[in-house]
Amino acid sequence: MITQVPQPVLEVHDLTVSYDQQPVLWNVDLSLPAGQLIGILGPNGAGKSTLIKSIMGLIPPTSGYIKIFNKPLQEVRTRISYVPQRESVDWNFPASVLDVVVMGTYGKLGLFRRPGKKEIQIAEDALEQVGMTAFTKRQISELSGGQQQRVFIARALAQQADLYLMDEPFAGVDMATETAIFQLEWVIMLNLHLVASGPKDQVMTEELFRKTYGGKLNLHTQVTDLIRKQDFNPLKS
Amino acid sequence: MTFDSNAFLIIFTGALIAISCGFLGVFLLLRKMSMTGDAISHAVLPGIVIGFFVSGSQRSLEVILGAGLLGILSTLMIDALRKKAKVQLDASIGITFTLLFAIGIILINLFAYKVDLDQECVLYGEIAYLPIDLWITPNGLNLGPRITWLAGINFFLILGFTYFLFKELSITSFDEQFSSAIGIPSKGINLALMSMVSYTTVSSFESVGAILVVALLVVPPSTAYLWTKSLIPLLRLTAALGILIAILGYYLAYWIDSSIAGMMVAVAGAFFFGSALIKGNWPLGLRGTSKSNPAFDS
Ligand SMILES: Nc1ncnc2c1ncn2[C@@H]1O[C@H](COP(=O)(O)OP(=O)(O)O)[C@@H](O)[C@H]1O
Ligand SMILES: [Mg+2]
After folding, report:
1. How many angstroms separate the CA atoms of B219 and B22, rounded?
2. Which residues of chain A does CATH 3.40.50.300 include?
């Protein structure tokens, strides 16, 4: 079912990922082209976050391998940006919005080196892109859910990467941020069981969803309905 | 009330220990690992006893190494129990440190006749004797109180550790997965932090004891957390509290003729409860602004 692309940005080969010997993802094969926005759909608990985490090397795969820009992850870490689910951290952490966004620059800085003027400038630019300039000094616990999500996206922008992996980046964000995301030529992975890649109308068909999700189809029929609507753009490619 | 060189030495050493513990405690608190600090400070006991037995001296490098190894062993054990044996975190902490602590107590009793290791001292410490426990070199040079030296070296180590690894310590405390994703060695940073906690416990156990050192790891950072909104002010306030606790603890203990370390912890507790009263989420308008401001979802 996989559309093989020439010179893929991301290749996943026969990936199986398990928690405590219980496979959550199995035999996932995918290969994604550059310069596209790609979504992976799946119901709650389908394994979307697990797939992203194993691509980022946070969960070791049981079998299979992953190549990014045709190289193993370790060699290209600084070229990949990661947005975890917002719920994965404690937002009562004593840090300002700027403190968190500057963290995006730490990967390229390396051990012991401290962020300086250049890194702060990068972070401020990223905050401007998501329309959060007014909140630079605000403590992160004093933000709304959508604003926290924008802080995470700004932190990913500050990584200045070539490939962006985002786990549910649209949860609660406003139109401006959405636009900021779409202006960039990213690959966005939202969900699991990617069966194909390519133009939205060829990929997001009911037949493909039926093949992928089998018994869990109900939810996805609604998703396809959603996609047919003009105003639903996250999956535009 | 007196202020002489002995009083100064005790307060100075107490403040060094309180600040050292406080700095590490801030990161334990932010990682929700305060109880791991508690576990480590108890679990180092068998390492201390074995090091003591091997070298015959509580001033030896063997004691520090023994404690460091046991401290790391205990964090690994807690992690393994939780991940492999599927025991809840709090239970795996409880199992690990009580077991290691018990082994330490048994070892003390077994070896007590061979080495002069005072169980009371290990458990409770005694900072009051500090001015008479001098560090005298083999050729008779008096360098001053040994415990102050130990606390001083530890203080500078921890200061260097938090300064040079500030970026790594803060990002791994806030978002461990993101840190790993961008190539920051979060596991290594964590082990380094745990080793520092072990080492601090060893260098403080003679003065404040293995039990009270836990209070210094947990209470001042928790108090400062109630008042501050970002990390550097949090560390600063923790340090200021450490100094206040040492001064007030000394004079109150002097006044009612009680244990100095015990009084330091009591003062720390009083500061915490005072702050919780002011900053906590109490009814009747007793409070200022609440810390746990729930994010209003958009
Ligand atoms: N740390 C974990 N330990 C064990 N099982 C897990 C863990 N994380 C996720 N799972 C399980 O893996 C499956 C996929 O989870 P996840 O990737 O978070 O799904 P999604 O992001 O699609 O909602 C779920 O059934 C979940 O229960
Ligand atoms: Mg998820």
Report:
1. 8
2. 10-79+170-228
Evaluate whether the domain defined by B5-133+143-276 bears CATH number 1.10.3470.10.
yes
Q: Distance, in angstroms, between B96 CA and closest chain A CA?
A: 22
Burial of A104 (0-12, 13-18, 19+ CB in 10 A): buried
Residues facing A165 on adjacent strands: A82
Residue A197 Cα to ligand 2 midpoint, Å, equals 21
Q: Supply the ipTM of this predicted assembly.
A: 0.83
CA-nearest residue to B83 within chain A is: A20
Query: Of A20, A41, A50, A85, which is best to mutate to test ligand 1, by the most ligand atoms within 8 angstroms of its C-beta?
Result: A50
Q: B163 to chain A: nearest residue by CA?
A: A112
| Chain A CA closest to residue B292 | A92
Q: Which of A65, A81, A86, A50 is nearest to A191 (CA)?
A: A50
Closest CB to A93 among B30, B181, B298 = B30
d(CA A47, ligand 1 centre) in Å = 6
User: For residue B167, which residues of chain A lie inside 8 Å, CB to CB?
Assistant: 106, 109, 113-115
Helix (H) or strand (E) holding A109, with range, is helix A106-109
**CATH superfamily of the A10-79+170-228 domain:** P-loop containing nucleotide triphosphate hydrolases (3.40.50.300)
CB–CB contact A172 B298 (8 Å) = yes
- pLDDT, one tens digit for every residue, chain A (237 residues): 444 566 778 888 888 898 888 888 887 777 777 766 666 666 677 788 888 899 999 998 999 999 998 899 888 888 888 889 888 999 999 999 999 999 999 999 988 889 999 999 999 999 998 889 999 999 999 998 888 988 998 999 999 888 888 887 776 666 666 666 555 433 333 333 344 455 444 555 555 555 544 433 333 334 444 444 333 333 333
